[in-house]
Design a protein that fits this description.
- The model is unreliable at about 125-135 (pLDDT under 50).
- The protein has helices at about 1-15, 20-25, 25-30, 35-45, 60-75, 75-95, 105-115, 235-270, 275-295, 305-335, 335-340, 345-350, 360-370; strands at about 120-125, 140-145, 145-155, 165-170, 180-190, 195, 210-220, 225.
- The longest helix is centred in the middle third of the chain and has 33 residues, at about 235-270.
- A hairpin with an 8-residue loop joins strand 4 and strand 5.
- The protein is of the alpha+beta class.
- The protein is globular.
- Strands 1, 2, 3, 4, 5, 6, 7 and 8 form an eight-stranded mixed β-sheet that branches.
């Protein structure tokens, strides 16, 4: 399938040998708890995909990153579900690094270590919604001498078993009360008081390590906290919005890759009539074209309302298209394929998880209608 072949070529350029190693592992092994796919991702330089070259990364463009996700999604939905969290976190943090005065010397030094040490970053942001949700973090911070004590949890927290660093949005509560201050904490995975607990109970996407990351009075030095500041409490809103665009684009591409792999099997095996195969391929290519359009239109700092609206439109259109595409692909692959191996059915079922990433279509309906009518886009 031409589009998947193009994606594989891009993935091989950034992560030589990764696809070949993944293909050698049976599908069920890739998707189980304790799967080796995240370790392979790290070994093959996956950590640095969106990290600027000045920090040792690849500095991939949005379209390149999207194609890498397509290629990986065709082999392991668990892997793309997990690494989407790392990638959008990287995109947010390193966008701060290029802005004068946004990071301390210690924070900048840490960012220089991510690629050389292949540190995987888990997301403790309440990903999926812009602006408002980050202002209500699940993790609270209490000021103490030299820093803050963090308490709360993130569940599910993909990469919980492999993370080197947790990036968590936090609410700093002062002694005098009032509205808490928004901030971002960089928390080592081995910090005292940090623990991981079972949470994910579904066999699908079980390799993504989506368990609970729990913080109980975890001390974080003040230098490892990026603060908005009382003088400008919205200073991190742009960061959240940019990360939102990256996340929606990359997670959608990952699930689309899983669907495209099923379509590719139909084409390679020449299942069904030419008309059926062509119609299936056209629908799949249309979904991929939507995502590629978003990637082509994404600039280095995609935090404006237009970027957010554009990626939501593409995500929901792809979300609507995938169930029909994978159902037709399974039907054309036939009953013997369904009986003899569960991989195709599992890959098809995994694509449905796109609907469960926030914001849901219901939650976004009124904000999108207001935006289409000329108003602001406000996602609650």
């Amino acid at each position: 399938m031409r589009s998947l072949d193009a994606a594989r070529t891009v993935c091989e350029r950034f992560h030589p040998g990764l696809l070949k190693e993944l293909e050698q592992i049976p599908y069920a092994e890739r998707e189980r708890p304790g799967s080796p796919v995240i370790d392979l991702f790290r070994i093959h330089g996956g950590v640095g995909l969106l990290i600027p070259e000045a920090y040792g990364g690849h500095g991939a463009a949005p379209l390149e990153a999207l194609r890498v996700q397509l290629a990986l999604g065709a082999l392991s939905p668990s892997l793309v579900a997990a690494v989407s969290m790392h990638h959008f976190t990287a995109a947010m943090l390193y966008s701060l690094a290029v802005k004068s005065g946004r990071l301390t010397a210690g924070q900048t030094e840490l960012l220089h270590r991510i690629v050389p040490e292949q540190m995987v970053m888990a997301s403790g942001w309440a990903e999926g919604r812009t602006a408002q949700n980050i202002l209500k973090p699940a993790v609270t911070a209490r000021p103490v001498e030299g820093g803050f004590l963090l308490s709360g949890s993130k569940k599910p927290c993909s990469l919980s078993g492999s993370m080197s660093l947790l990036t968590a949005s936090i609410a700093i509560h002062g002694e005098e009360g009032g509205e808490p201050e928004l901030a971002l904490a960089l928390v080592p995975a081995d910090a005292p008081g940090m623990s991981v607990h079972p949470f994910w109970g579904n066999d699908l996407l079980a390799g993504a390590e989506s368990d609970e990351a729990r913080l109980e009075d975890v001390f974080v030095p003040a230098e490892m906290v990026v603060r908005a500041g009382a003088d400008d409490p919205t200073r991190l809103d742009d960061l959240q919005s940019a990360g939102f665009v990256w996340f929606e684009m990359l997670i959608s591409a990952g699930y689309a890759g899983s669907a495209a792999a099923l379509v590719e099997q139909v084409l390679e095996r020449r299942r069904g009539s030419a008309e059926e195969r062509a119609a299936l391929a056209v629908d799949m290519e249309a979904a991929l074209a939507l995502l590629e359009g978003v990637a082509r239109g994404t600039g280095p700092e995609p935090g404006d309302e237009e970027s957010v609206a554009r990626v939501l439109v593409a995500r929901y259109a792809v979300q609507n298209a995938l169930p029909g595409i994978v159902a037709r692909a399974l039907e054309l692959l036939g009953g013997l394929d369904f009986i003899s191996c569960s991989a195709s059915a599992q890959a098809a079922a995994a694509t449905r998880a796109l609907a469960f990433h926030p914001p849901s279509r219901i939650a976004a309906a009124e904000p999108l209608l207001a935006y289409f009518d000329g108003g602001p886009l406000v996602l609650a």
